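Predict the 3D structure for this chain.
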Amino acid sequence: MSRVRWLRAAFTWCILASSWGAEAQACPAGCSCAAPGLLTCEGAGLPGGLLTRSALAGAPTPLIALSWTKAGIKGIAPDALSHLTRLKMLDLSDNQIVDVGNDTFRSLSALRVLNLTGNGLKDLSRNFFKGMTSLEEVYVSKNELHAIPFQLFAPLGNLRHLDLSHNKFVSILNHFNRTNRMLDTLLLDHNRLEKISWNAFEDLK
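Done. Predicted structure below.
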């Protein structure tokens, strides 16, 4: 997802947020709050490379779009994002995140866009997307992913855009997208695909 496109969409959501009464607050150190509900922290390093709830202290309330990129983030504390129940867009691209806990994103039921491009993710657990029922766009390209757990994307009934390019996938299994009837863009280029099951995309319309 291009930075220009992300910012354009983020500003749209945050203009809406201003009508919901978003409060203007001081930004976290090294970050910018260019619009109500928008927090951008490009290159803002964190102690130990860990994104915590305290790191977000002073962020706009409610927070609608969060972009913390190119900051060397290595991990996300389990409760770091649990209070961001109105978050629509989350961009943690171009960091060094290798693993994300099962419950890390569970409270983000309003999230529409998730961007984890350019990290070091090796695996996504089967419950990775549990609770994220509003997701429409997922970007996990340029990671080290090699397998897709069965029904990984099952909770994402509104998914429209899925970018899995530039990873290490070797196969696509049966009924890859059984519950993703809204999907209209799937990117799988620059992988190591050797096998695609005959009914992997049977449910695409």
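The first strand starts at residue 32 and ends at 35.
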